[in-house]
Design brief:
The protein is α+β, with helices and mostly antiparallel strands and 75 residues long. It has a single domain, classed as Winged helix-like DNA-binding domain superfamily/Winged helix DNA-binding domain (Arc Repressor Mutant, subunit A). The protein contains four helices and three strands, in the order αβααβαβ. It starts with a helix and ends with a strand.
């Protein structure tokens, strides 16, 4: 199930931008966001506010700030 794959991917990486998740799972952001919101509601994932991220850092363009999701570990 893709929901479990998204969980495992984020748990392993720690954090990932929405664009990376969409590429990895071959989905557009409209399909990916509900899956991410599932894990946010469960308290396992948090959305990091774009203003806290800064620019993409991978180019010299005027990219919009990336949308980042971070896995919340439970000890």
């Amino acid at each position: 199930m893709i929901l479990a794959e998204v969980r495992d991917y984020l748990a392993q990486r720690g954090r990932a931008p929405l664009s990376d998740l969409c590429t990895r799972f071959a989905m557009d952001d409209a399909a990916m966001r509900p899956m991410l919101e599932h894990w946010v509601r469960k308290g396992r994932l948090r959305h990091i506010a774009p203003e806290a991220n800064g620019k993409c850092g991978s180019c010299c363009c005027s990219c919009s700030e990336p949308e980042i999701y971070e896995w919340v570990s439970r000890g």
